[in-house]
């Protein structure tokens, strides 16, 4: 199973689809871990929480209506919805201002970057860098 940081083999048609594919990948990874723990006789009794900063992607996890624009991610949608229905996963919205992983995956506005960097206890570089 590919890691979450690897390139996705498909091209997304919208930001909601891209985020939803990320949610589906996270749910697949957590499902594997839950099954491993179950086999080791350490069952997880609470739902695993997956955070997503795209409201449309979060609503797709619970909305039973299949939209025409989402039929190309139908397998992912059914997989995630089943895990949500079974109570194994909860997908919750988190504002982008609390999505700390973004510091590793995309360019951020300076103020947000500095806030994330500070919360990770990483200081400013002491040597000047290119462009700085």
TrEMBL record:
Superkingdom of origin: Eukaryota
Name of the protein in its database record: Uncharacterized protein
